[in-house]
């Protein structure tokens, strides 16, 4: 027997003329999230998304928890819009809940009536059903605030009943917000930043700067694993692994050490500036948090930002490290991020990086670099990997060469 889930969305309800686009995208993403579990059917009904799927309900719920745009959802039983049927189903659900969890002592019935032809109001339905539950289970007390058991009844095309509400991630459906390159390092912050951008509907294209052999294959695998976690929410991702070794070498030999990190980050911006138009990306996403390290002071950010014409989204700019860590834990990236690895930045970080570099002195410090040639070479030696929730495949394209980007510089 298939399990049915009723999904609630939030902000989408406020989208005027575009609502259809947001809802269709949400329904498509929901269908994709469960498609490999078994046959499923997704439909939009009366301000909710309904999913029936022939699969283990726990497995299905695990997938639905990650779909952006879903505020909360419940596994539901649906019955006809008839007070007697609704009441007996609600009583049965309450009995099952109490059998499962004998510690339940308080309860509440919450009714939403979207179908106004139903003869009773929401309030009347709740009290009628509540009375019947109390009659069958006299040990239960009604309690409006924070009840142990919440029986939800939604009266729509049919009556949908549930006793468990599972939180979703919120946000907007993935794919409704344009595209951005997400700079993913292997640290704690950047995967969280990428997740936040994706949660607002932005399609993310992860970009990782890899400095083999200064950084090992393992540090690349770590980024792949992080992207796999993100792919649980977004669907397949195209990870770009940019060959950063020569740029690192050039910086190390030609830039004075106190300004190396800022120059390195400016080189990352330049590479992205070249890559973004080719992939239709309109912005960059980084894991910067104001003041966290020397390269994230306002002065450093200004100097780094000046190397790109793209808007740089920094979802974590005002977050404390402890908050970022908690969020990383919640989305499942933390355990991967704390695996030991060599970071291309930390490898070359001098003991005393400048915390307030001016743009002027940074530009002078990097004047010896042939930035155009370095960027072109780094991209030509990059690889693209297609990352799914279950693994990584090198995509068809291999090394990158692109005349269009070169021609339009
Ligand atoms: P994270 O935890 O994300 O590594 P961080 O606090 O270590 O961040 P930095 O090393 O200063 O910060 O990097 C700032 C941002 O620059 C990162 O959040 C990430 O978006 C980007 N970045 C840094 N190194 C790389 C890399 N090797 N590849 C891709 N992006 C990078
Ligand atoms: Mg880092």
Could you outline the blueprint of secondary structure elements for this entry?
Blueprint lengths: L2 E7 L9 H16 L5 E6 L2 E6 L3 H8 L5 E10 L3 H18 L5 E8 L8 H15 L4 E2 L6 E7 L3 E4 L3 E2 L11 E5 L5 H11 L3 E8 L6 H18 L2 E7 L1 H10 L5 H20 L3 E3 L12 H8 L6 E2 L7 H11 L2 H4 L6 H4 L11 H7 L5 H10 L2 E6 L2 E4 L8 H5 L2
Parallel strand pairs: 5-6, 5-7, 10-11, 10-13, 11-12, 13-14
Antiparallel strand pairs: 1-3, 1-4, 2-3, 4-8, 4-9, 7-8, 12-15, 15-16
Bound molecules: adenosine-5'-triphosphate (ATP) and magnesium ion.
Q: What is the number of E strands?
A: 16
Helix count equals 15
Radius of gyration: 26 Å
Cofactors, ions, other ligands: adenosine-5'-triphosphate, magnesium ion
**Class per helix and strand makeup:** alpha/beta
CATH superfamily of the largest domain: HUPs
Q: Can you tell me the CATH topology of the largest domain? A: Rossmann fold
Shape: elongated
β-strand amount: 15-25%
Main sheet summary = 9 strands, mixed
Please state the second-level CATH architecture of the largest domain.
3-Layer(aba) Sandwich
Distance between the termini: 58 Å
What percentage of residues falls in helices of 4 or more residues?
Answer: 40-55%
**At the first level of CATH, what is the class of the largest domain?**
Alpha Beta
Uncertain ranges: 396-409
| Mean pLDDT over all positions | 92
Total domain units: 2
Task: Give an account of the 3D structure.
This protein is α/β, with parallel strands linked by helices. It folds into 2 domains: 3-167, VC0802-like (2-Layer Sandwich); 179-406, HUPs (Rossmann fold, 3-Layer(aba) Sandwich). The chain contains 15 helices and 16 strands. It has helices at 19-34, 57-64, 83-100, 122-136, 189-199, 217-234, 245-254, 260-279, 298-305, 321-331, 334-337, 344-347, 359-365, 371-380, 403-407, and strands at residues 3-9, 40-45, 48-53, 70-79, 106-113, 141-142, 149-155, 159-162, 166-167, 179-183, 203-210, 237-243, 283-285, 312-313, 383-388, 391-394. The strands form 2 sheets. Strands 1, 2, 3, 4, 5, 6, 7, 8 and 9 form a 9-stranded mixed sheet that branches. Strands 14-13-10-11-12-15-16 form a 7-stranded mixed sheet, sandwiched between helices. Strand 5 (106-113), helix 4 and strand 6 (141-142) form a beta-alpha-beta unit. Helix 7 runs antiparallel to helix 8. It is elongated and about 85 Å long. Residues 396-409 have low confidence and may be disordered. Adenosine-5'-triphosphate binds next to helix 5, strand 11 and helix 12.
